[in-house]
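Progress note, sequence design subtask.
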């Protein structure tokens, strides 16, 4: 059964998954080779970053699902890789090839197509309208 608060449902499934992974590490012997002293500060900070910003992102995602049609919210699956590539180019100096530029235009076109396809139905879902399911 799902918890009435979506983030609690996600938390319970992640907690259960974590417990199973820890149990598996003991069964496979991985837990015996783990020593907390071997964890670097960079690794610990990276984990903390992923936990904090992953939680914030998920909270934002679930909030958006209450306000916008799911088909529009799901476009994050297209925009996240594009943003990652752009950040890699700007921050890490990664090379942007013509293939990446063409892919970026395809991603943007796909998002515009999704937005155009849902047309004027894209309104706040507070009144129950704007969702393709309510049409």
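Output:
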């Amino acid at each position: 059964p799902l918890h009435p608060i979506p983030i609690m449902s996600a938390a319970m499934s992640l907690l259960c998954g974590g417990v199973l992974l820890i149990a598996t590490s003991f069964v496979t012997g991985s837990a015996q080779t783990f020593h907390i002293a071997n964890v670097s500060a960079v690794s610990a900070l990276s984990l903390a970053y992923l936990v904090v910003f992953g939680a914030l992102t998920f909270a934002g995602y679930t909030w958006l699902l209450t306000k916008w049609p799911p088909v529009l919210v799901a476009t994050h699956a297209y925009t996240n890789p594009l943003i990652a590539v752009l950040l890699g180019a700007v921050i890490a100096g990664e090379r942007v090839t013509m293939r990446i530029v063409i892919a970026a235009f395809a991603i943007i076109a796909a998002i515009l197509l999704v937005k155009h396809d849902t047309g004027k139905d894209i309104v706040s879902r507070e009144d129950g309208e704007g969702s393709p399911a309510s049409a």
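The helical segments are 6-28, 41-67, 70-73, 76-91, 98-118. Work on this subtask will continue into the next period as scheduled.
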